[in-house]
Amino acid sequence: MSSRLIAVRTEPLQATVRPPGSKSLTIRALFTAGLAVGTSRLRHPLDSGDTRVARGALRSLGSTVDESDEHWDVGGTGGILTPSREPIDVGESGLTARILTAVGALVPGTTRIVGQGRLPRRPMGGLIAAMAAMGVKVESESGGLPLIVAGTGALGGGTVTVPSGSTSQFATALLLVAPLATDSLTIVVEDLQGSAGYLDLTLDVMQIFGADVERSGQRLHVEPTGYQAADLEIEPDASAAVYPMVAAAIRGGSVTVTGLTGSSRQPDIQIIRVLAEMGCNIVQSEDATTIEASGRPLDPIEVDLSEMPDGALAVAVACLFADGSSRLDGLASLRHKESDRLQALVEQLKNVGGEARVEGDSLVISPGGLHPARVETYGDHRIAMSLALVGLVQPGIEIDAPGVVDKTWPGFWAMLDAL
Predict the structure, then answer these.
(1) Which of 122, 324, 357, 359 has its CA at 20 to 30 Å from residue 203's CA atom?
(2) Which amino acids are annotated catalytic?
(3) What is the pLDDT of residues 324-334, one digit of tens each?
(4) What domains, with CATH codes, occur in the chain?
């Protein structure tokens, strides 16, 4: 399908949604289980484009992943990995690319990693430099993908500084392999700007699989304990939950998201706080969160979204329905995603009739006269899912290349149709 016309809703929403499993948790758990001793079970994981390439990468290095509808059983290697004869294609998954690069140090031989779409232009230099400081050679002509890791089958200990100004994923990658090092490893996270919550997710997964990690400010000390198999429930994806929640905010009505509450450690659960500031009523139960909205214009906001960069796109769309101008700060990392999301947001918010401009690392949005439009997605799943929400209110919103949502939520369009 080359485009998809969004069906406008003339009545307030009434719906219950359970988003798919967290992509962030699924990929972290896959690699950790693949490095563990024994067979792990991941319950309710996310099956999407990004997690498929992560599973493929693990299989290329000697792990096994047996899949059923409700769970995956991951056969651990104990860190004893088999070199892949062929380049490992990580698709457009930045997290998979970065973790696999670090895992390559444990492979007794070369690991060639290639990517698709915009991924070869996304930053890798900070991770490559950190690994070089640890004695691991990584060859890259461009400073990104494609690259070759010259693994020796072992990773030394010591102390290494990981630049994290552009992404926390460099630190996550080294943290996940640190328990397999030959000695204790201290990772100093330098210049972390937002997304600190994703490091917390990494540490949570590591500890579930038996890692010994001590955190002191920006210093993370990891003992060489290895990993042991675990049984892990993957909670629903908070980044995915943002879309039905914002749908309720802009169309009005009530949408309940099951499986997620404000106690989640996923950074994008902060959408609850943001929508409350915009005037929505938030009702939380033991295992669900309900967003209630009147359908009247939302309150404009000024908010720092550096800790929830993925959810920021849907928040930007919500600002089109506010009673005045809003300012979203802390969005520097959006320039280095599947698209330059800052620029893409400006172009497409204007395309549907709003006003938007970039000021430094901030986005200023004002509502305007919405009108029918065909939305370009730039091959970016979050642009597609976020701008589609406009079509619930404004007739004639058509989403170009709707298949891009397969990257993180293959069932997104079915969910939207069911609202």
Answers:
(1) 122
(2) 310
(3) 999 999 999 89
(4) 3-19+238-418 (3.65.10.10), 23-223 (3.65.10.10)
